[in-house]
Design brief:
Layout: H1 2-12, H2 17-23, H3 26-47, H4 50-59
Keywords: Membrane, Transmembrane, Transmembrane helix
Transmembrane segments: 20-38, 44-60
Length: 61
């Protein structure tokens, strides 16, 4: 009988933060925003000409 009581108590326990993040899709939103920020940083790096400078320096005449 004590095993059933422990199981019921375990199921009635409030959810942890990780489960809450997955249930509300907040984790997906945070990951998506992180990917957008990383892609923006890479594009700004390419646009700044830094890559072209190093390619010209390494593979230039």
């Amino acid at each position: 009988m004590s095993q059933i009581a422990m199981l019921v108590a375990k199921l009635r326990r409030p959810r942890s933060l990780g489960t809450w993040l997955f249930d509300t899709c907040l984790f997906d939103v945070l990951v998506s925003l992180g990917l957008i920020a990383a892609a923006t940083k890479v594009l700004l790096f390419f646009h700044s000409g830094a890559v072209a400078f190093w390619m010209l320096l390494c593979f230039g005449p």
